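The passage that follows is intended for readers who have already worked through the single-chain material. We present the inputs for a multi-component assembly, then the predicted structure in tokenized form, and finally a short commentary. You are encouraged to pause after the input and sketch how you expect the pieces to fit together before reading on.
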Amino acid sequence: MEIRVSIDREKDFEAEMTKEEAENGRDEMLIDGPEQANTVPDGFNATYLRIYYGKLFPHADIFKWMSYGNDGKHPACDKSYFGRREFSFTLENDIYIRFQSFNSVSELENSIKEKCPFKIDIGPVYSVDPAKRHAYAQSGHNVFTPVERELVFDIDITDYDDVRYCCTGADVCLECWPLMTVAIKVIDTALRDDFGFNHILWVYSGRRGVHCWVCDGKARRLTNEQRASIADYFRVYKGNENSNKKISLPGPVLHPFLARSYTEVLKGFFEAKLLSKQNLLASEERYEKILEMIADASVASELRGRWQENKRLSMSKEDINIARWEQLKHILQSGKQKSQGLRRCVEEIVFSFTYPRLDMEVSKHMNHLLKAPFCVHPKTGRVCVPIDPNNCDEFDPTTVPTLSQLLEELNKGGLRQDAESEWDRTSLGESVTFFRSSFLLPLLKSCKEEIESSHNAKLQQSKNALSW
Amino acid sequence: MEVVRSDRKSSSNDVVVSTLPLYRSAPPLEVRLEDFELFAMDRLRVLKGISDGLSRGKKPEEMENLAMDLWKANMRHLEATEGVNKDVISHFVLRLVYCRTEELRKWFLSMETALFRYRFHSKSSEAQRVLMSEFKLPYKPVSNAEFESVKDKLGQVARSMGQTLPAADAIFYKVPFEEVPELVAGRRVFIHKGHAYVAMNQVVSLVVTQFRSNLSKALILTNRKWTSTIREQEKDRLAPIVEALCTSYLGPDYSQPKEFAEISIKDIDQISKTSFPLCMRYLFEKVREDHHLKHGGRMQLGLFLKGVGLKLDDALAFWKAEFVPKVGAERFDKEYAYNIRHNYGREGKRTDYTPYSCQKIISSTPGVGDHHGCPYRHFSEENLRAALARMGVGSRVVEDVMDKVHNRHYQLACTLTFEAVHGSSCDAGINHPNQYFIDSQKILQSKNGSVA
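Having made your guess, compare it with the prediction:
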């Protein structure tokens, strides 16, 4: 057992170490030979987490972010802003405490270090301090209500189980992860180009999906109805388990948003990657699923006939999936297929397999909680690190730093004490740097501008009032 | 708005007649107390009709026709000015009625907004433009140069909805996308950098959003006025009317059993299984099981049984048989019999009480130990699923029912259950437990050729 995290300097850790030793017994202590001096056993436990929160978790950055400039000195700053934000902690043993609130970065940091939550969720900013909601409730009027909340999206790979053959459930591999990458590309582009949002943070959820935080002022102030309208703008799935066709794209042409998503992202991904990676047309069982989506039974049976016949032929040169897809497209889009619906089938199939599947409820309501970035997923031990949407193809969930890996890196750093930037000694450094430079700094800059301009507008107004 | 006091003359000539009233402020009109209530009832019939139509999933065109028919039937007045007055007065009365709780406000807001939408849509485009200017919306039509730059995209959106391409002189408004959530949700607009391009034939959405937000704010203010002053000032005059209006049920009241009059105690068990809606079936099972029901449950089930055709003597016998094992005969006669006679109008103020409608049951607030209320609203999902399974509802229908429940269409959920249990459609929907019972008996009768 070697967690040499500046034990000499921090009493807390010393205490923890003793506890850890007691818990883990002598065995691991004995393994402690010279070769393994810097290995930290895999896993997730309160002791590791306590060190993580003590040394690596970017408390100050989270505080800066969630303050949206209101922690500044400007007279227009809303000093109560951060204190009205709900944080929820899930403690060890699934004890869940909601409506935590903090008035400063040190309150936040001390509480996290003290309670050592296995999961931290972030809720909305309420009209009043959520920790004091009962006191307000007694006044009779229901003044305790959410007033601001980032627009959030939650995409989970488990929702893609009917279109991926490599993994099921919570598992994710490099074969199916690109589905998440595609989701990021489609949603990110629409949020920026269509809705005009600029401050968007994508985060790996630590296990099987991604979260998206849209933090522009106007996104935070959206009503539930407006949130729902954006979620519905993104929705193309209508069917349930009992319908063959889960996607319906009516109308003679696609809406510009869908058309762009199709030509810029979905089509290329489906044809170049997904078809062969997931072997979508290689076996009868799999191609039947696609044939079911073709509205015309005779066309489907024509394709079925060809594919059953040529399964014996060696298709050595060409990938069988791609060859069959070309046949399908050729038949559906050839001149003799007059019906608009049949031509549309090609697009519907591509959308069915690749279009982002959002958890709609998370986005529709202000008071939905979402896990904070930089939390550690208890099942995988992986840190919820930001993902760069411009380079999301390079993101690899299997190499995201784990808790034990980070502690090991801290150990390797040895006595090189540099309290200001512990994470620079670890592979978390890159993520924190990215979070700051690509997200936090531009966000705070625009918050400052917003605060100043609204202040000036108010000054102007009161001047006018005086002159009048 | 003033309710008539003798020394004031009618000032109806001063009212500005507009294409559609926007209900900005209460009119300086005098209203006779009877009209105060009658006008409100008439408008309520329109709103309830719209509510029923929406919960039955009618299409937008059907809804518009329905709303206009309802309006003609209930709100039209021979004299145009009087019609406008009635429109405005009834709106402000109902504002008072429906300002008092979150739930009432929400319902009123949705129904008034829907009504406004259909009425706006039915107006000429000239009238629509006048109305738009009355809302003082700060949006200008898109300039020619800008139109040219996005023309292709606008055409693409139009064609995606199966419409023709916009003409060169078509008017589009560029508005923040937040202003037109329904157009965004349906992908019926082109959105670029936070702005939606709204075609002239879509401005109804823009106006409706504005109407809704104005009314929403106004309802909050009305509520403050109501709690701070009006309720106290008007406690002997308007307050009772206002409080009664929101629970009033406008269909048949089922206080007198008709078609299937006279059921006797020995039939009840059988009938409860075949023809009681879940809320009553559950109460009935509970009283059999516990030999007791708290007040809310006794009222809900007792009045229903009266509507079903249980005579007073039978009712007394029924409740007594159930309660005696628990409370004893003496206590029953002392504490419970009075209440049953009371329900049948034989005690107290001798009112013949009417069975509860679905709306009343749904809006009731059962507490600990209570079994009354609407199962679709008040049961947990788990319990509701189990109860439906016991009624023999198949799992696929259960999913449909749960779907309605999640969307808070409790009556629609009950209708689906009815249809599943009886294997027969129920187009009118379920609005009243006694209607459920009567419709059920009709179906069973036609199946068996005899009364169950």
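Commentary: Residues 46-155+195-237+358-457 of chain A form a domain with the DNA primase, PRIM domain fold (CATH 3.90.920.10). Chain A is about 45% helix and 10% strand. How closely did your sketch match?
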